Amino acid sequence: MLTAIVGINWGDEGKGRMVDLLSEKYDIVSRYQGGNNAGHTVVNEKGKFILNLLPSGILRDETVNIMGPGMVIDVEHLFGEVQRLRDAGIEITPDHLKISDRATICMPYHKLLDCLEEDRLGDAKFGSTRRGISPVYADKYMKKALRMGDLLHMEDTKKRLPAIVEWKNLTIEKGYGHEPISADDMIAWLEKYGLPFKDYICNTTEYLENAIANGKNVMFEAQLGALRDIDFGIYPYTSASSTISAYAPIGAGIPSKKLDKAIGIMKAYSSCVGEGPFTCELFGEEGKALRDAGNEYGAATGRPRRVGGFDIPASKYGILMQGADEIALTKLDVLSYLDKIPVCVKYDVYGEITDVFPSGKALEEAKPVYEYLPGWNKDISGCTSWDELPEAAKNYVQFLEKQLDHEIQFVSTGAEREKFVLKGEWL
Q: What DSSP state is assigned to residue 269?
């Protein structure tokens, strides 16, 4: 079984929680794109963990975790993240974690360039996490990047790196007016933070091909959601990689394989980190109350998330882009404080009422058309069956199903691994 866990909306839908829960049924979990701009929060019997780079299956002792060739890896951040997990009692070994030799290294100068450009843009910034993601993907396609496999051949890497640094300084020093970077510093950084992972670096394509041939189940974990996809998202306010399920086998290093299933994750309301059009956004006290109720602050950045009611047009589009076979709805319990629950059912685009998700200028000009559903005003965090939910909560889920023309099979009622309700057939 090859299954992708993907986000339907702007990211932060609860993918890490779902991967942690479902990975019990899978032998391998592979991250296939993005870098340490992820903020996958997992709460289980071992504690609460925020994973930026590592696959969320890392918290299961028997699961093999793979960082695929589609990823960009800040080895300093990885070094720190691994150490924090080890300090919490999580075992991480080369048998437990495998890093593709084709994955791209996110260097310190990529982070520097990310920050310099966001500062230059000022109020027109894209809302970057300032972790170098776009600059390193740009270098990858410019064929100016280093890959994890280069750590296995440091003498050759030391010969290549000065020319790359010279090229980068044309932008850093002469473009932004910042002091130049040093090739010696970059080599020292690689030796300090990259070389400790030499034993983890391997041909993950070969590993996965052999595992699949032997009947192993593989789960692919995405970072961000459909609306941040570089091609199909709210460009230019997107990530620099492909976040959709169709890319999973490619980014994982097995492009000849096809998914058996895509599981789409969406929140019971909307949230968005970063800039760009967000039609359903709620402001003032209404927005603050929802933000606080859901603790909507970025796990990777700490930034307050923009929040709004559930967005039907955006979610229909996200389901289509992800080719989602099954749907999980997270954080239903957050809405328990509301007397009436806002749902953005359509957009007003230049005076035309539509449920079609637009792009470009039309999306920027779109206005939300809200309906309000009765709340349940009852704590549902202890509910573990559909029948235990209040009627108003059931009605809310069923209203979303009707609007989306898609069944919701799974509803989370809390952050902990065991707090969920199954509805209909699941997996």
A: S
pLDDT at position 427 is: 47
The residue range of the domain holding 21 is: 2-101+212-263
The tens digit of pLDDT for each residue in 36-56 reads: 877 777 777 777 888 899 998
For residues 299-315, give the mean pLDDT.
Answer: 87
**How many domains does the structure of the chain reveal?**
3
Both 189 and 93 in one domain: the answer is no
Helix or strand holding residue 312 (H, E): helix 312-322
Q: How far apart are CA 189 and CA 151, in angstroms?
A: 12
Q: For residue 301, give the CATH number of its domain.
A: 3.90.170.10
CA trace torsion 154, 155, 160, 166 (10° rounding): 90
- Which is nearest to 379 in space by CA: 320, 407, 419? 419
Assess whether 404 and 273 both reside in one domain. Answer: yes
- % of the chain at pLDDT higher than 70: 97
Q: Model confidence over 172-209: pLDDT tens digits?
A: 999 999 999 999 999 999 999 999 999 999 999 999 99
The SS3 assignment for 143 reads: coil
Report how far apart, in Å, the C-alpha atoms of 264 and of each of 322, 331, 409, 426 are.
7, 14, 11, 12
Task: Name the least confident of 14-18, 154-158, 186-190.
Answer: 14-18
* Cis-peptide into 236, omega within 30 deg: yes
Q: Looking at 20, 27, 40, 74, which residue is catalytic?
A: 40
Check if 12 is active-site.
yes
* pLDDT tens figures, 321-368: 999 999 999 999 999 999 999 999 999 999 999 999 999 999 999 999
DSSP state of 44: E
Q: How far apart are CA 181 and CA 176, in angstroms?
A: 13
What's the CA gap between 233 and 360, in Å, rounded? 10
Beta strand pairing call for 28-31 and 64-67: parallel
Task: Give the Å distances, CA to CA, from 259 to 66, 245, 263.
Answer: 17, 8, 11
Instruction: Give burial (CB, 10 Å; 0-12/13-18/19+) of 256.
Output: exposed
Task: Taking residues 373-396, report their average pLDDT.
Answer: 95
Q: Mean pLDDT highest for which of 19-28, 196-205, 273-282?
A: 196-205
Residue 87 structure tokens: 């300090």
Please report which residue ranges of 143-279 form alpha helices under DSSP H.
154-172, 183-189, 204-213, 248-251
With tokens 């064929």, the residue in question is 143
- Are 273 and 159 in a shared domain? no
40 labelled catalytic:
yes
